[in-house]
Specification:
Number of strands: 4
Largest sheet: 4 strands, mixed
Radius of gyration: 21 Å
Distance between the termini: 35 Å
Strand order of the largest sheet: 2-1-4-3
Order of helices and strands: HEEHHHEEHHHH
Shape: elongated
Length: 211
């Protein structure tokens, strides 16, 4: 698409992104100046792939939600499989750790002459963190083992980033998990174990980051 925009001398603003649900009559993008060739318009439309099912290609939130879904089913009363849920949390934290160690993609794509050509609707670091942990923390309060592992995930992620915005997001999730645990009817020792996991997250920010 960047080659197309440069060739035709246009700028493209994408309103949607991979994985979004789009209504049949919704606008997907704006092009300026408008294309005056029907062949060019057809070519641009062919660059957009739509379907009834989300796919993980170019849609990181899709992959995360698939893992979260497995964990949620494992935590359901009919299954009650905390080991599987913990394995899912480990995989989510591993993915988040990789993302946290990398620069976030820019939402503006430049052409070969460094001119702004495409503005994309990029997801954010906060959205990815929310997708990985929001649903889980709301359904893990009853399990001390899963709650502790859910708090160990932010600790693992925090080891690889010194970016203040990401640190704030990691801390926010840890604090929300801890507040939920405080409201739960846990044994005193269980609450202490969960608190130790939370304190470990905060101490991680005081340590040198991993290269």
């Amino acid at each position: 698409m960047i080659d197309f925009a440069e060739k035709h001398g246009v700028r493209i603003h994408a309103f949607t992104r991979p994985g979004f649900f789009n209504h049949q009559d919704s606008d997907l993008m704006a092009v300026w100046p408008p294309l005056d060739s029907d062949d060019a318009k057809k070519h641009l439309r062919q660059m957009v792939i739509s379907g009834a099912t989300r796919l993980p290609r170019q849609d990181i939130e899709c992959s995360i939600e698939d893992v979260v879904e497995v964990a949620m089913r494992a935590l359901s009363p009919g299954i009650n499989d905390p080991v599987t849920a913990i394995n899912c949390i480990d995989n989510l934290s591993a993915a988040q750790r990789l993302l946290s160690a990398r620069p976030w993609p820019d939402d503006v794509i430049l052409d070969s002459k460094d001119e702004r050509r495409i503005k994309i609707n990029n997801t954010s670091y906060a959205n990815v963190m929310n997708g990985a942990f929001n649903m889980l923390r709301r359904n893990t309060v009853a399990s001390v083992a899963v709650t502790c592992r859910l708090l160990q995930a932010p600790q693992t992620i925090a080891q690889v980033t010194d970016e203040l915005g990401r640190q704030a997001e990691i801390t926010r999730h840890a604090e929300i998990i801890m507040r939920g645990a405080d409201r739960a009817d846990h044994d005193e020792q269980d609450t202490s174990d969960i608190r130790s996991c939370f304190d470990a997250v905060l101490k991680t920010f005081e340590q040198p980051r991993l290269a």
